Amino acid sequence: MKDDSTGALIVKARGVMKNAYAPYSKFHVGAALEAADGRVFVGTNVESASYGLTICAERMALGAAVAAGARMFRRIAVTTDVDPPAAPCGACRQLLAEFGLELEVISAGPKSERRWTLAELLPAAFTKESLDT
After folding, report:
1. pLDDT at 132
2. Domain, as residue range, for 77
3. What's 10's domain CATH number?
4. pLDDT recorded at residue 110
5. Per-residue model confidence as pLDDT tens digits over 32-89
6. DSSP letter for each residue of the chain
7. Between these two residues, 103 and 132, which has the higher pLDDT value?
8. Which candidate, 86, 81, 63, places its Cα nearest to that of 14?
9. Which long-range contacts link 93-97 to residues 24+ away (Cβ below 8 Å)?
10. Residues tagged active-site
11. For the whole model, what pTM was predicted?
12. In angstroms, rounded to a whole number, what is the distance separating the alpha carbons of residues 84 and 95?
């Protein structure tokens, strides 16, 4: 069940998803990342013929947020055209973990929605605390 603010976050992710540059995979993704102060940052995937240079929607949204000075986040909505909805990839999970494992992750497809905490998606995460040994 989603509240109005979650619905609005999903709408923002769907809106930016249509701008994806995905000529190779045809897999369009949108992301809307909500900062602790209520600001929302969006991103969409941008593919490259050199596949390793492709940027995921989640990392694009996180980059925009960090560039704007945000460092604390409540939740991220990720939208795709598949059901069940796809979860963020491992690289996105790892980069998001830099800012806290309590982040709520909402994945929305055309017909359904899934929710996790980042800690559930990335158990035994490698974090900055891992470096303190």
Report:
1. 87
2. 4-132
3. 3.40.140.10
4. 96
5. 999 999 999 999 999 999 999 999 999 999 999 999 999 999 999 999 999 999 999 9
6. ---HHHHHHHHHHHHHHTT-B-TTT----EEEEEETTS-EEEEE-B--SSGGG-B-HHHHHHHHHHHTT---EEEEEEE-SSSSPPPPPHHHHHHHHTT-TT-EEEEE-SS-EEEEEHHHHSTT---GGGGG-
7. 103
8. 81
9. 93/118, 93/121, 93/122, 93/125, 94/122, 94/125, 94/126, 95/58, 95/59, 95/62, 96/58, 96/62, 97/122, 97/125, 97/126, 97/127
10. 58
11. 0.94
12. 23
Q: Which residues pair with 77 in a beta bridge?
A: 32, 106
In whole angstroms, what is the distance from residue 40 CA to residue 109 CA? 20
Number of domains observed in the structure of the chain: 1
Band of pLDDT at residue 2, cut at 50, 70 and 90: low
Round to whole Å and give the CA distance between 123 and 25: 28
